[in-house]
Design a protein that fits this description.
alpha+beta; 3-stranded antiparallel β-sheet; 3 strands
Length: 104
């Protein structure tokens, strides 16, 4: 399989580490049941939405994911577009807090 250079740099795992990981390995433990549920109810294997990932240093980030099944040669694989939305979520949470304090 493959992993791009940006993912290696951003998440802090080596390319070799990434290539031996599963979807569960970059998730906080408490999020794994939700991941398993999403996979089980996705009839076509497409998964999208907001999730949390864990970087090698333990930092938890919020990500927007769009993933779909594919073949890598003859091997079943998954291609994923992942965007870190941690800052956007923090800003949104702050805005909601301000609205709740001053908007009422």
């Amino acid at each position: 399989m493959e992993v791009n250079d940006r993912a290696v740099e951003y998440y802090g795992f080596t390319r070799e580490e990434f290539l031996h990981m599963t979807l569960r390995d970059i998730r906080p433990v408490e999020d794994i049941p939700d991941l398993d549920r999403a996979i089980s109810i996705s009839p076509d294997g497409n998964i999208s939405g907001e999730w949390r990932h864990k970087k090698k240093d333990g930092t938890i980030i919020s990500v927007a994911i769009s993933a779909a099944p594919m073949k890598y040669g003859s091997t079943p694989a998954r291609i994923a577009l992942i965007q870190d939305i941690t800052s956007a979520r923090l800003l949104n949470n702050r805005a909601v807090s301000i609205i709740n304090i001053f908007g009422r």
